[in-house]
Amino acid sequence: xxxxxxxxxxxxxxxxGCHIWTGYTDDDGYGKFGIKNKIISSHRFSYNLYKGQIPNxxxxxxxCNNTSCVNPNHLEVVxxxxxxxxxxxxxxxxxxxxxxxxxxxxxKENTYFSNKRRYCRxxxxxx
Length: 127
Hints:
By secondary structure, the chain is α+β, with helices and mostly antiparallel strands. The protein has helices at residues 3-8, 42-50, 80-86, 90-95, 121-126, and strands at 11-13, 19-21, 32-35, 38-41, 59-62, 75-78, 111-114, 117-120. The termini are far apart.
């Protein structure tokens, strides 16, 4: 079967514009596609097919934050750091927190850093 036909047979169009990969996905929801005894990410295949080569040391970010989407218009080339910040990683989730788990606001005065982690001074004082 033709490679493009095989690829497109595993894609379903969503109302929100996402092209959802219906083939095999890994535990994180990223689609996987087999080509010549090699498994590659379906979103990377889509990007290569429709937008061009992915530069070395670069990653593909899903603008829609849907890891199973292969719509080339929802994919962009970014650095690893950008991908972490833009995505739903623990780093990006923690970056957006404005208060500690006890509800104290993270301010310059109330925040200190140790081992690249952010801590609340009020909580430390209460302990």
